[in-house]
Specification:
Elements lengths: L1 H35 L5 H9 L1 H9 L7 H13 L1 H5 L2 H9 L2
Helix pairs in contact: 2-4, 3-6, 4-6
Protein name: DUF2388 domain-containing protein
Keywords: Signal
Pfam families: DUF2388
Length: 99
């Protein structure tokens, strides 16, 4: 009887530690995400900088390779800049590379 109680306690302890660790991690990232979306441009710039590698592949392949980061950056550029709405994907990819 005592062995089964000790066994259950040994199993439950690591699980509770793991759960609290997960809660702390997800809570921290949620608060970080809310501060980035509060109107600052640092989150916007990060999307564009993350898209540079995809943009390089897009330009080098003459538009054949389209990455997810590039797609997100193209959407963001077109939402923020009226002139970007009429620009081609290639022109915007080159603009991202120039950053």
């Amino acid at each position: 009887m005592i062995r089964s109680i000790l066994f259950c306690a040994l199993i439950a302890l690591p699980m509770s530690a793991l759960a609290s660790s997960f809660a702390g991690t997800s809570a921290g990232s949620a608060s970080g995400a809310s501060s980035n979306s509060s109107g600052s441009s640092s989150g916007d710039d990060k999307v564009l900088l993350d898209a540079r590698e995809d943009a390089a592949g897009f330009v080098a392949s003459n538009g054949a390779i389209r990455g997810a980061w590039l797609e997100a950056a193209l959407i963001q550029l077109r939402e923020r800049d009226v002139a970007a709405r009429d620009a081609s994907d290639m022109a915007l990819a080159r603009k991202i590379l120039a950053l």
